[in-house]
Amino acid sequence: MARVIAVTNQKGGVGKTTTCVNLAASLAATKRRVLLVDMDPQGNATMGSGVDKNAMELSGFDVLTKRAKPAEAVVTVSEAEFDLLPANGDLTAAEVELMNEIGREHRLRLALNTLRDNYDYILIDCPPSLNLLTVNALSAADSILIPMQCEYYALEGLAALMSTVEQIRETVNPDLQIEGILRTMYDPRNSLTLDVSGQLSEYFGDKVYRAVIPRNVRLAEAPSYGLPALKYDRASKGAIAYLALAGEMVRRHGSKKTATAVAV
Ligand SMILES: Nc1ncnc2c1ncn2[C@@H]1O[C@H](COP(=O)(O)OP(=O)(O)O)[C@@H](O)[C@H]1O
Ligand SMILES: [Mg+2]
């Protein structure tokens, strides 16, 4: 059954969408079955996966508002070998429509429950704000992956995010875990980067991934071709970094399984 991971950070521009598309492609490259769920009305993960957000028949909107079954709205991104539940601006309308519904926070969870058996990983790309779409993502998730840039204000944003996680645990999802912290647009020549990086490790310990994502122009270029970096330029530093992240993630889950087996 799939592990559901929401990629989230209330700050915009930290690499959430880039991480979703490239991690999805990298996990698929290691033969994992992956579904990427776009929960951002901007539809960047959809476009970055090569699906035209203005030309699709069904999307997350239809799923959240129960106009379509989840499996009907999922498309296969053949180029990158993962599945996608696409999104566009209609998601904002879904949010408005759900506002007065009972159980509005759990619509995505119920939808994903019907799909979980088909995948090893379900990644959810979140919008950069704490709205009903984000709450749906955090309610549906087993854990959150937090991409962050190692800059001064990042830590402030992280404190806000941790308080959100606490609120989510108290209300809609008591089991929500921290999957990991991912350092993005990483520049080791910058002393502030190393400073912030050190503080992250102090606070989050081994939740901080060893893999770091460097600033790499290929990662910024690839979405305009509707491709993950792995398919756009597989030798690029960005593509290799996301492959390393996927490897680390899979190993972590693998070793956890072994640990439980040993404990039993
Ligand atoms: N490691 C990176 N190196 C270079 N550019 C990046 C990197 N990660 C993200 N970007 C670029 O930075 C911008 C913001 O990234 P994005 O993934 O859209 O962030 P978010 O989804 O958190 O708003 C995009 O233009 C993206 O192409
Ligand atoms: Mg985004």
Automatic annotation (TrEMBL):
InterPro entries: AAA_dom, DNA_Partitioning_ATPase, P-loop_NTPase
Domain AAA positions: 3-178
Family (UniProt): To B.subtilis soj.
Listed name of the protein: Chromosome partitioning protein
